[in-house]
Amino acid sequence: MVSYAIKTCILLVSAIALADVATAGQTSLGCSDLAAKHGVNITYEDVVTCYDSIPFNQAAAKSTIDSVIAIFNDYYISRDSAMTPFLAKPLQSDPVDIVQKLRKIARASYTSDRKFHTDICSAIASLHDLHVEYARMF
Q: Measuring CA to CA, which of 17, 89, 90, 115 is 20 to 30 A from 25?
């Protein structure tokens, strides 16, 4: 289920990623191939190839992860519940320390913009909280 959500996340941002690369004046072979399909027969692998071709920007990643950590650390009202084991139904799930997961992402070394954002999507999806969603903004 998480894999499907991540694939959906990647597919949803692919068009925006194409526009972002085009407006930045960068040429990306993977995204050029995707754009050449004119929206017909686009596969998940096509989108991954495009997304993997987008250069990783350390400064933008730091700003992003710092903001996401701050939001979850300061404003996520379900943080204590998410970390509590053995909650009663229907709130049962494994405890998740979202801030710890996000800090681990912040310390990790990335070469792929897609992998960075996919890890954030996965961490947030692990909360199983339908009130929370991560969508990359351009």
A: 115
